[in-house]
C-alpha cells in the first residue's frame, strides 16, 4: 500500500502509529512503520512551524460543485487594471531608458516582497531576517499589493495544508482560470474560511511589523504601489506623468501579479513531479523565470521548509540568490535546507521517475 494512502487512513499527520501492524516485530513490520512516518518527521529541520504541512486527512465532502458568488468590485478593478497594463505596453517605446530600468527594478523589488518576504520568510519561516531586511521586505511587499502579509500567509498556509481541496483558496482542481485569478473574483468557499480560520497564526500576530503593515495597509499600498512609482520617474528625470503611471505603476503591478498567479495555476498543472507524484504541484522552469525562483513547485510542496524552494540553489532562482546575499551581509540567517540524502531518498520513494538520479 503506498505511503500516502496509509497516511490518509491513519487520519492524522501528527502521529507515527502504524495501523496495519501485525503482532510480530518482523522486518516487514519495520518497513511498514517507516512508510507511515509523517512527511515532516523524515526531515524535521524546522520544528517551530507545522501549519504549512500537507494534511491528507482532510478531504472534500461529496456533493455538487460550489456555487460562484461574484465580487463585482474586484472583477471591475481587475479588468480595468489589465486594460491599463495593455495600454502601458503600447507606451514602452516612448519611455526614457531610465524609466524602463526603474520599471524592471520595481518588478524585482516588489517580486522579492512576495517571494523572499510573504512567502519564504513569513508564510513558511524558512529563514530568519534582521530588522533592516524585514523593513526592506515589508516595503517591497506593500508595493506588490497582494493583500497584507498576514492575510497572504494565512491563505498560503491553507493552500499547503489543504492543497487541492475546497479549503485551498486557489484550488487548482477548479481549473486554470480559477487558480490563476478567478479565486480573487468570487467569494471564498466556506471551507477556506472554516479551515483557514483555525490555522495557528500566532507567530504573525506577535510580529509588530506585520501587524503595522496590516493596520495601515490601504494608505501604504496606495503610496508604494501607485504614487511612488509614478512620481519618481516624473520628478527625477522628467518622464511624462502618463508614461510613469501606466508603465511603472499599472503595467509593472499587473506583470508581478500574473507572475505570482502562474505559480498557483501553471505550476500546479504543467510539469514533472520528480519528488512526489501523488500531489499536483509541478516543476516549471518558465514559471520560475517569471516568479523569480518559485516554479520548482513539486519540490516546494514536498519540502515547504526549505528556504531555497528548490534543489538547485541559484539556478533560475533569483530569490535564493538574494537571500544568500543577505546572509553574506549578516541580515539573513538560520536558512533551512533539506539534506541531499533526504531529497534523494524522497525521489526514490515517491518521485515520478523524471529526476536525473532516477
Ligand atoms: Zn509555499
Ligand atoms: Zn502551490
From TrEMBL:
E.C. no: 1.14.19.1
Domain called Fatty acid desaturase: residue spans: 101-305
Regions of compositional bias (Low complexity) in chain numbering: 9-20
CDD domains according to UniProt: Delta9-FADS-like
Entry's localization field: Endoplasmic reticulum membrane
Bilayer-spanning residue ranges: 70-90, 97-119, 216-237, 312-333
Catalytic activity, as annotated: octadecanoyl-CoA + 2 Fe(II)-[cytochrome b5] + O2 + 2 H(+) = (9Z)-octadecenoyl-CoA + 2 Fe(III)-[cytochrome b5] + 2 H2O
InterPro entries xrefs: Acyl-CoA_DS, FA_desaturase_dom, FADS-1_CS
Chief subcellular location: endoplasmic reticulum
Superkingdom classification of source: Eukaryota
Listed cofactors: Fe(2+)
Family: Belongs to the fatty acid desaturase type 1 family.
Entry remark concerning the domains of this protein: The histidine box domains are involved in binding the catalytic metal ions.
Name this polypeptide is given: stearoyl-CoA 9-desaturase
Species whose genome carries this gene: Microtus ochrogaster (Prairie vole)
